[in-house]
Structure formats: C-alpha cells, structure tokens
Task: structure prediction
Amino acid sequence: MGLIVMGLLDGRVVIVTGAGRGLGRSHCHELARQGATVVVNDLGVGVKGEAEDNELSPAEAVVGELTDIGATAIADTTSVTDWSGMAGLVERTVAQFGDLHAVVNNAGFLRDRMITSMTEDDFDAVIAVHLKGTFSLARHACGYWRDQGKAGKPVSGRIVNTTSGAGLFANVGQANYGSAKSAIATLTQIIALEMHRYGVTANALSPIAATRMLATVGRTADGAGGWDPLDPANASPVVAWLCSEQSGWLSGSVLRVDGNTVQRVKGWSVEGGYRSATGEELTVDELSIGIRKLFGTIPVGLGG
Result:
C-alpha cells in the first residue's frame, strides 16, 4: 500500500469508524501515508451486523498493516451505536495523542428487504449503525472542538460522513439504508451550519466502490488487473484532503466519487409552482388540474 511520505496530514489525529475492511481500511492507509495518526475503529461484525469469530479483529489487522509502513495507529472495537462509548473514544484519543483533528464516519451494514418484508429490527438496526452512529461520534467530537474554541485554542476540526447513492437518489429494497444515508447528508449540512463558528467543517462522501456491501446488490470489482474504477481506494484521497487544513473553505457539501471522477451533488431544489386560481388560499377543487399544471401533464381540453 506504500510507505509514509511527508504528507498533507502530518501531526493530525483522525478517528475512522468501520475501518477494518473495504472503504474504511483504504481510508486508513491513505490517511497514514499522508502522515496522520489513525484510530482504527471497527466492531468486527458481518455485512448484516452479525457477530463474527475472528482470530484477529479487523481493526487489529489494519493497525498491523499501518505500523508495518511506519504509521502510528491504535485499534478500537467500540460500537458506534454506544453513545457513552463514542464519548469515551474521543476522550481516550485526546488523552493518548493530545488532540483530535478529524473523524471519518464510515461504519455500517445492510439488511436489504422490500418494505413489505422488512422487520422492525431490520429498520432499527440499520438506522442505528448508520445514522445514530454517525451522529454519536460527530456530536462528541464537536463537543470537544467547541470546548477548545471557547478556551481560545486553535481548532481545525473536520467531519467526513459517508452517504450513498441509495440515500441521494433512492433504491429499491433499501428503505432502511437509504433513509439513513439521506438523513446523513442532511445531518452533514446541519453540522456545517452549527460548527462553522468553531472552525469545524462537515462534508459527506458518496463513494462508488466494490465493498462487501456493494457486492450484496450485485456490484463487484472487475478483477482484470491494473487500475479498477471500483477500488475502494479511489475515494480515499478525497477523504484525506477533507481531513486536512487545506479543505477548511469547504463545508456542507456532498461529493460523489466515481472511479477517477469527483462530482458535486446538489440537494433538493424548488422547480416551478402552481398558484391558486383566486390568488388567495388553495382549494381541494382546483388541485386536480393545478397539480397537473405543475407537472406539465394537463389533459387535452382541460385547464386552458
């Protein structure tokens, strides 16, 4: 994966969740190569959140890889859904390394089902790991940075959240996952608005990559050798840059990484409008034609 270079992130401390495999592992390697101290958080569960019997935890395995290239890294296996656990993770990181500069919220799993088959537990579990997990770590990191700012200390905090195409554009069979990822995009914008005054930015990344999760919906790497457009590592330089001081001017954005292309994703926008026929309040009677006018589907002979 390459040795450390004098990099963009020298002296910065970064927590990465879901860091034991796939995107998270790739992010850790890029962050380390750029000089960051990396806290590798991973619960070590399967793609549906089920317990796994690993001789060496995924987090410990990644830490071993990072220390082999000369990086400073530690493993953590706290669940992102554990509110007090995430508070403790921030506290331990600061106590051990003296500061915290960025968090990359990447933890998650899938339980895809059509809405008529999805159980309450399927929904709650996915919302918990993606949405609550992202909020929990972000909230405690933001609390630390706010306190630092109020104490007059310089702050360049960075939050990088992970959204997805299912959240941005919707997808069949992913009511739980898509809802969580859509909410994460909005949460990112809210954090950006609230934390600007303290020197903290928040951005979201939507990577297209061949991970265990993507494989569940039929997308895999091409395996043909050479550069792979679905390699999870394609998104990692963007993550590293977003964790750096250089990115301080950008906040509240959603960036989609597709192979070697970074795309800016813009959110909901208002398009057109129908005003009541009387110029006063809307009535039910006029909406059958009024809404058709809004969508440009007026039947021939109706509406004028």
